[in-house]
Amino acid sequence: MSRQPAPRISLWTAAKRQARLVFELMRDRRVPIWMRLIPLVGIVYLLSPIELMPDITLLPFGILDDLVVIVVCLTIFLAIAPKEVVEEHRGWLDAADITIDDLQETRQLPPNGEEKDR
Question: To the nearest 10°, the Cα dihedral for 97, 10, 46, 29?
Answer without folding.
Answer: 20
